[in-house]
Amino acid sequence: MKGKQVLLTGGTGGLGLGVTPAVIAQGADVTIPYRSPKDVERLKGIISPADFARIHFIPANLEDEASVEKLISRMTKVDVLIHLVGGFSMGKTHEYSFYDWKQQIDLNLNTTFLTCKYSLKSMLENGYGRIVTVSSRAGAEPAGNLAAYSAAKAGVIALTKAIADETKGTNITANTILPSVIDTPANRVGTPAEIADKWVKPESIAQVICFLASEAAKDVRGAAIPVYGSL
Question: Is the pLDDT at 230 greater than 90, yes or no?
């Protein structure tokens, strides 16, 4: 990814704290949208000042189409989209509120659609692109109490595969990864270490993402890759 213009959403989140340093290490020119300055400060605390200075931070609401369009218009082009934004919620279907359902669709699926839509326009104009989205094991293997999350993440898989089909014959690829539980400090709260140690590390996910985002992955398109750790 050396010299590539990379839009990295969710770069300041739990998964992003593992992915962002790996992408920076590839020599990419990285743009990270953010909602809260506190998130930017958290990332600043884990990477070197030199690497931090290479990141372009742009405030944006990825659930709003106009905001996403403006974000991408501020970039010279988008060579690579790595979309990490998402959120998890659970509850029994008959008790789950419609408001929470819509929130899961907005956060997990609609943000993916909007960032893919406007990034893809740039990629088609420039004849090159790598799209990497993040679904979930729950998107491929839905489970009880995860109806909204599973539906949203299944939508991410379908959307990514559709884009891959639309871009056949071009130098644009689209692939998604399916993590199991990600080993972040927030997820570890209240979980016994012997269980959490089986979860997949953000740094491991980062390696898969970096490959899919590279020129070497030109023949990988429409893949939904399990990254389950030891679960």
Answer: no
Structure-derived torsion over alpha carbons of residues 44, 47, 53, 56, reported in degrees to the nearest 10? -70
Report yes or no on whether pTM surpasses 0.70: yes
pLDDT tens column, 30-89? 999 999 899 899 899 899 999 999 999 999 999 999 999 999 999 999 999 999 999 989
Quick check: 82 and 23 in contact, CB under 8 A? Answer: yes
Spatial distance between the Cα atoms of 46 and 44, rounded to a whole number of angstroms? 6
Instruction: Name all contacts of 212-215 with Cβ < 8 Å and 24+ positions apart.
Output: 212/130, 212/132, 212/173, 212/175, 212/177, 213/1, 213/6, 213/23, 213/80, 213/82, 213/130, 213/132, 214/1, 214/26, 214/130
pLDDT digits (tens, 9 = 90+) for 5-35: 999 999 999 899 999 999 999 999 999 999 9
Q: How far is CA 229 from the centre of its chain?
A: 18
Written as one string, the DSSP assignment of 117-184 is HHHHHHHHHHT-EEEEEE--HHHHS--TT-HHHHHHHHHHHHHHHHHHHHTTTTTEEEEEEEE-SB--
Distance set, CA 186 to CA 82, 107, 126, 178 (Å)? 22, 18, 39, 19
- State both tokens at 183: 């080993």
